[in-house]
Amino acid sequence: MYITLLTLSRxxxxxxxxxxxxxxxxxxxxxxxHFSIILKVFxxxxxxxxxxxxxxxxxxxxxxxxxxxxxxVAVNKKMKDFNKLLYDILLKLENENKNSFLLNDDxxxxxxxxxxxxxxxxxxxxxxxxxxxxYFCFELPLDNMVREVIKFKY
Length: 154
Fold this sequence. Notes:
Number of strands: 0
Structural class: mainly alpha
Helix content: 55-70%
Number of helices: 8
Distance between the termini: 20 Å
Radius of gyration: 15 Å
Low-confidence stretches: none
Oligomer: single chain
């Protein structure tokens, strides 16, 4: 799961076309948005997401920040913050609309404030990307969605 989300978050589209900053924080936000969409698809299809995959994702993130040189106290604090971040994104990702997926502008602007100004066209592409990603995921069978989602191309 971690490698899949990391690969999706490192898509050159985000950094070349949308001019997002290529750093750990941006990749983490993008990973959590992708992951939140996957979780929402599972929920809308009436299925539970595999807890082991969730745990593995956070274990890999923890290992990554340890490799960046953070100590135990800092790692524990960051992991707590990352959990809160994921739930913030998960709970506020979309405007409630039963018929379609609609990204919550306020949430995106909170984590990507550059989209509010002169990069409005980039934000429209960002929204389009994640809308298409949502529908791509929704068409995949749940039993192999995590493996197949890596094939998404914008």
